[in-house]
Amino acid sequence: MIKVKKRKSLRICQGDIYKNINLIEFVSEKNGVIEVSKIDFPYVVVLTQDCELQQDFNFRKGYKVGKEFQNKMLLSVLVAPIYNAEHVYLGQHLSDLDIQASVISKTSTKGKFLRKNEIPRYHFLNFPEEIPISDSIVDFKHYFSVNVEYLRKLKKMNFVCKVSELYREDLSLRFANYLSRIGLPELI
Question: Are strands 33-46 and 4-5 parallel, antiparallel or unpaired?
Fold first, then answer.
């Protein structure tokens, strides 16, 4: 079980978990009609490094230290969706996008490895009882960015909790390791 903090800080922090966050999939215009396709994720976790988030906050609030420039500001925050573990096991966590994922039996070796965070692509989260989120899985393949101001405006209403420092460092390190892996082509 991970440790979380329910008290929110003034700023966006690494490990923050938010509910109901939209990803703008695409925007198109045809004959004067604008179409916006968005995906609503029930939960996401912030992956951007906390030092970057702190510098962005300080600069936006006018807390200048020394000779600072606007390059401390972030354009976006990196997040990853948090999926219900049962939906991942059934291969249905992407069903709203008409994507059928592979089934992972909870009792199989892969299912046990997933819960022990031994599969690089996934990070299993088991929340304390006081947090209204069932067992969940972060799929590092599905990370995306969210505009800083959009997330900041939603913080008051959409903040759920914050993964405590020790656990967020583990999550961050596992995400970085997944991204830095050397992908080899599959021979056919």
Answer: unpaired
Which is it for the CA torsion 138, 161, 149, 94, positive or negative? positive
Give the tens place of pLDDT for each residue, 78-112: 999 999 999 999 988 888 888 888 889 889 999 99
Q: Is the dihedral of CA 160, 162, 167, 170 positive or negative?
A: positive
Q: d(Cα 138, Cα 124) in Å, to the nearest integer?
A: 6
Q: Which helix (H) or strand (E) holds 37?
A: strand 33-46
Radius of gyration for the alpha carbons in the chain, expressed in angstroms and rounded:
18
Neighbour-count burial of 90, counting CB atoms closer than 10 A to its CB (0-12 exposed, 13-18 middle, 19+ buried)? middle
In this structure, what token pair is assigned to residue 111? 């299912």
Two structure tokens written together for 65: 């230290």
Distance CA 125, CA 143 (A): 16
pTM summary value: 0.88
| Residue 98 neighbours by CB under 8 Å, 6+ apart | none
How far apart CA 33 and CA 36 sit, in angstroms, is 10
The total number of residues shown for the chain amounts to 188
What are 52's two structure tokens?
Answer: 């970057």
What's the pLDDT at 73?
82
How many angstroms separate the CA atoms of 121 and 138, rounded? 8
